[in-house]
Each structure stands twice: as C-alpha cells, then as structure tokens.
Amino acid sequence: MNSNVRNFIDKRTLTDKQSVVVGTGKSGLAAARLLDVLGARVRVVDRSEDVTENVLGPLKGKVELVTGPHQKEHFADADIIVFSPGVPVKKLAPVLEGIPAQKMVSELEFASWFIEAPILAITGTNGKTTTTTLVSEIFEHAGIRAFTGGNIGTPLCEYVLDVEPAEVIVLEVSSFQLQNCHSFKPHVGLFLNFAANHLDYHEDMREYLDAKLKLFSRMTGEDTALLHESLRPVIEENFGERGFTNAHVEWFDATDRFEAPNLPGEHNRSNVEAAWQAVSRFGVTKEQAAEAIRRFTPLVHRIEPVAEIDGVLYVDDSKATTLDAVIAAVKSFDRPVRLLMGGVWKGGDVAAFAQAVKDSVVHVGLFGGSRNVLEGPLGEVFTVTWDETLELAVKRQAGLAGNSDVVLLSPATSSFDQYENYGQRGDDFKRVVGMLG
Predict the structure, then answer these.
(1) Of 245, 298, 244, whose CA–CA distance to 267 is shortest?
(2) Which one-letter DSSP state was computed for residue 83?
(3) Kindly report the CA angle at 149 between 144 and 31, in degrees rounded to 5?
(4) Are 226 and 187 in contact (CB under 8 A)?
(5) H/E element holding 249?
(6) What are the chain's domains?
(7) 71 in Cβ contact with 97 (< 8 Å)
(8) pTM of the predicted model, to two decimals?
(9) pLDDT tens across 341-371, in order?
(10) From the centroid of its chain, how far is CA 143?
(11) What is the distance between the alpha carbons of residues 266 and 329, in angstroms, rounded to a whole number?
(12) Strand stretches in 58-154, DSSP E
C-alpha cells in the first residue's frame, strides 16, 4: 500500500463518507474497491437492470448495488461521485442537479490522487493506443519499469491497489476521462491529433477540444506539453500559443528519424516521433528507442494484415472509428483500396473525406448502420454498394477485387449497431476472410 493511500486512511479522509460509483465496468469496480479500502461507504449504480450482485466479486455483500434508471436519491447524499469512463455525464444532469462539481470526478482523477511516480499521459483522436503501447515497449527495452493503463488495459485504481510500484506511469486518456478531472497532472502530456469524434457525446468540437486540453491545465513549468504541429492553428486561434497551459510547450511532426517496418504510413511516422519525444524526457537513449521501434509489431485491429488471397490483401483496421483514422489507413497503401465502412455514426465531414481519399479508393462497400449518412456524399465520388452485414460486404468485395487490390475494413464508426465492440467486428472480418481461402 503506497504512502498516499495510507495517509488517506490514517487521516480518515473518506472514512464513513458516502461514495457513489457510476458504472460496473472494470474501472468502476476498481474505484469501488479503492473506496472500500479507504473506509468509505460505497454505493455502485448502473442503469442496466440486468446487472446482478455477482458482478461485484469480492465486494459482494460489502457495498450497495443499485440498478435501473438513475434517480436523484441515488446521488443526493454523496460526498464523492466517481464516474467510469464513457458514462454520459451530461445525460445525468437532471439527477445531479445541485451537486457541486468538485464532488464529481472520473476514475482517472480519483486514482491520480494516490500516484507517486511521474505520469506520461497520451491523448488525441487517433493513434492513442498504438503510441501508448509503443512508449511502454520502449521503456521496457530501456530497462525502465512502467505501468500502462488508463483508457486501455488496467484501470489506474487497480494499479493503486494491486500492482507493484512503477518508475513511470504511462496512460492513454480519453476526453470522457479528462472532462471530469480537476487536479490530474502528468509530468509529460502528449496530444497526438484532433478531429471530429464523439460528437454523439460532446456538444460540439469546442467542448471536445476543451476536454482534451484539460490534460495540460494543471501542468507547471517543470512539466512538458508535446503537441502535433497540426494542432498549432486551433490552439493559437482559441487560446494563444501558451494560453492553455503553464507547461513547457514543444511541437512535433512526422519524421524519418527511426526505422519502423511494421508501422506504415505518415500517421505512424508521427506516432513514432511522438513516442520518442515523450520517452526522451525520462532518460531513454535514441539507440534504445530505435531498437524497440524496429521490433514493434502492429496491434490487432489497427491496419493489421489478415491474409493475401489471389493477390488481394485483406486488412483489419476495425479500430478506425473516425474519418481521419480512415484517411490515415488508406494512405498507408500504394495499392488500390476497396474500403469497407459502416456502423454507428460519430460525426465528421463525409464530402471532405471523399476528396481526401479519391485517388486511392476504387470502391466503397457499406454495411450495417450509417448508410443514410455515408451513401450520398460518397456516391458522388466512388462506386458505392451497401450490404446488411459485414460478411456480405466482404464477400462482395472479394468477388470484385483484382490482383494487387486491398480490401480494407476501416469503418469510420463505432460498432454498436451489430457488434459489442470494435474487436468483435474485427474478429468477424477475420472469420469471413478465413472462409475465402
């Protein structure tokens, strides 16, 4: 148990205080465990009536579980409310009315109160997971013990409770997590890029940007903010070059500094440079970084080659849930691309997207949801077909594809119309491709 947790317990900071955790996912349950250790009374609330006490695991019988539609009385007596990532806090506004904002925190914020090691935090619209994983592998190769978590893998509360102390905390952080942070402060903050996304959650692009920039709001002159050059105009227009942070600000862009054979495309050259700029602040040498980058293998569902059949390359990029991510994927290839798109729409300029990829894409195969959004603008530039399912769309493209074509699943949407998550969607693509051979 680290000293910060012990201080909370010894000072009885949360002893017998009423806490409410919203959501029964991994992060929510980790926060509930930490609150229980700190002596708080814990109430876990979840909108789903299908959730049972079995989900609580070792907390069963120790904490209160409330399921079904949220009510004011679930929160009215709370001394602290902890939100799981992705909980639509705005939709809770009616039941949270009158509760001071300082009582409401994300799981990331809550856990950060107990962190002793320096934090390297990575945000952006696209490329967060690849860059976060690459940073961690560079640290491992350099012999620096790092914990990797946040929006991927292990929740930060779980690290506080169960994981051996690390020398560096590497976190992928989302706008959902940052929006309910008040004091979270990394030593190095990395902002990869910014494009339309989560507009089904955020009111507009400015609110989305403000949430991202919360990463830097508590940083000081002893900290470093690293931002991609493409962000400079939007930052300067809205804040002035330094108005968003007191940290030392530096800008980066794609370079050919490192050999990265398994990370194709300009967007990945940018991610590699970002990773290097971040790890260099922790004593990693260029030689150590270069070897780790050279060995790095693609993550699943991220421009992942699946098979080459009769000269046609099939690629799983199911993680691409924004138009900008799809543009980056398409531009990774110097072969004609047959693009598979569809799912739950999250926002963006489809007409501008079509112009950006018109020289590379030869056919767009739509499937599932968002046909009403995508078909019209794309049909003005490309041959567009639609199939009800991904399987039918893959089989159609396989029948049309010629030698050297790429059939690329890069949907530009979330998966929730037909799948539980993007991973399940990517696995289904692989299943169908496996049937073609």
Answers:
(1) 298
(2) E
(3) 130
(4) no
(5) strand 248-252
(6) 3-109 (3.40.50.720), 115-295 (3.40.1190.10), 304-436 (3.90.190.20)
(7) no
(8) 0.75
(9) 999 998 999 999 999 999 999 999 999 999 9
(10) 26
(11) 10
(12) 64-67, 80-83, 104-106, 119-123, 146-150
